[in-house]
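quick one, three chains, predict together pls
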Amino acid sequence: MEDVMKSFKNNSMKWRYLKQALFFGTVRLSALIIVLALGGILFYIIVNGIGAISWDFITKPPTDSMTKGGIMPAILGTIYLTIGAIAVGLPLGIASAIYLTEYAKEGRIIRFIKVGINCLAGVPSVVFGLFGLGFFVIFMKFGSSILSGSLTLGFLILPTIIGASEEALKSVPQTFREASLALGVSKWQTTYRIVLPNAMPGILTGSILGIGRAAGETAPIMFTAAAYFTAKLPGSIFDEVMALPYHIYVLATAGTNIEATRPIQFGTVLVLVAVVLGIDLFAIIIRSYMRRNKRW
Amino acid sequence: MDSGIMKLHKVNFYYGQCRALTNISMKFVKNKVTALIGPSGCGKSTLLRLLNRMNDLISGTRVEGEILFEDKNIYAPDIDPVEIRRKIGMVFQKPNPFPKTIYNNISYGPKLTGLGTGNMDALVEQSLKQAVLWDEVKDILNKSAMNLSGGQQQRLCIARALAMKPDILLMDEPTSALDPISTAKIEELIEELKKNYTIIIVTHNMQQAARISDETAFFYIGNLVEYNKTDKIFTNPDIKQTEDYITGRFG
Amino acid sequence: MSRHIKEIIIKYIFFLFSLVSIVVLGLIVFSLFREGLPIFGKVSVRDFIFGMEWYPTYDPPSFGIFPLIIGSLIVTFMATIIAVPLGVLAAIYISEIAPASIKEILKSVIELLAGLPSVVLGFFGMVIIAPWLQETFDLPTGLNIINASVILAMMAIPTISSISEDALYSVPREFKEASYALGATKFETIIQVIIPSAMSGISTAVMLGMARVIGETMVVLMVAGGAAAIPESIFDSVRPMPASIAAEMGEAPFRSAHYQSLFAIGIVLFFLTLTFNLIADYVSHKFRQVGSGTL
């Protein structure tokens, strides 16, 4: 009788551990596939793109109907649009988050605002493009311009910045606020002098990830800012610009000689990936450094 | 006996539906140390935070009754809680210096509230001396306060509160997070401070209450059970419940 | 008292700022409707949504977007089938199994994958995957449903994985300990305790991943092949809604019926993703785990 129980138990434990091993194997495989996907994409892009990269490629404009030359105007345009998006999204996002974390009391209005932010975060990028076209380009009469593109991208990254700022503000210890308020310092002064400075590194690193997204988006700028080709560099915020993501799309789908310009395409992709992932990686490294050195 | 600097009249306090303080009437005597004692959850910390309106920060709370400070109800609608907190300082359970320099921790309050129009250096020095911290930190005033030890941080927080020149200093278990040596230092400091300030201290430590306070109030489940001279409370309390608590039979 | 008033004014200024997101949502609806609604004076809503023929530039034109809707749904469905297992399993690995160092690296990898611009992924699908598919399976084109779905899955994985991981991570330790104390293996604990507890978070993750896929533009524009017809196999080309908008807006004359119909597709797309997001929001709030006492 005892032997029967024993063999039953042993068998069952073996089977249970076998199941566990199979499951863990599958789980590890899934993680591996994701790593290989990213690694594979980056590998292909770097191997194929590195040959096109040169000082002239980065600093010279395209020539011969964009089949030769560099991509300097597109790099510059992407920088302009990204800075514009930051100028729109960052102040609005931080101010929103300050209200939500420092002033608002739980209730229907807050719930409503938060659902709104989530919904805005889910609006497809091409719909943002339509919005930018319908509202900034046509209704506000800004035309297809850096201004329209920056505003569109700024609102696109607004939810990301609000989220990052909220998280950073919440991580400032409540005791800091209490200590300041107990001294008879007003709410706004407490927020401005104690809470915001301590949250700022977190706000910025969190927002950088949103900024990376702004630099890489194509659909929102297709109808609002991006030009197929511009003969000269933009002179004001009411001018159209070339931009890296749109340039890739144009070269890859509608170029003069798609096959012949492959190296230029890969080179442009490599530059865009380097810019965007460089921005992201910078934020990730700073963030993990900050987490390790946190004092409270 | 009418030197009561702060008087409570039939105060009730609620967290949402839950009543945390029931019908408290008492007064705090000027330039004395009053200890609030009682088992955890008896409402003593809640009461302390009522006195400088810190409970305003918790949503869903409600106060009934009157708390008079300088003969004015601090919960009257025309009273600005910020103004109250300037006159009634607070030291918290855990030291909570700002992640700033020692100097800036002290100057922070006076600067922002417009008190520090005079000589800031002198005010910083005076406050740190009052908190008996000056000798330890006078050469590192521009170093971060986060580098100080726990006991030093707590004295810094006391100095920070004193820099506002408050009338009353509220202390919420100020030594519970500290080692015995730091605790002794803070107790000495309290002894010194009561010459100039009215101090109301919440403590879990019975010996501490007996050592440093002039008056003691015993709370139990939101009620003020007994309030009298400390000597009286600790030698011959009127109420059985108080005696049981003090002699360690419960709590 | 004046300081008191100043404080109140500051509070209301910040309140106004917090409404910006809502205002933008309102402006999006306003702009889409202003430019898109006039099409319904020319085509009925029914014919627009259920019409089988999308020939906006023919004479007479035909504005039936049903094939585009089907195109969107099919690539979304396929991408979800690929992305959900990979994303959720990776989340389980990160949250429950991986050692700390690998965990950090893997989280960064997923964040970087999320950061890859969509045009780059589209380019990759077009230049690398499409020729490979075409040769291997001897197809007329490698720009088709399966290609688009694989790439879209890569875009959905970071969303699904990071939100699922948050949900798994926030399962109270007491639950796990209770399970181990009963002699359950780690696998049994994960399957029978942790995943059920995190189910609402995982569902939210899947909904948000799908919302991201259905609205994604550049990938379907470059990789899905662009045929506005109901597909018969996963190797057929399709033309999902975002692809139509992006591809045709440049050529549609200002405020023509074609232009208006593209905005109208935008309306459909907007409300489709809005629905996904609201469901996700509802699920995550309705079944929110509050401490270990509830459930």
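Strands of chain C lie at 54-55, 62-63.
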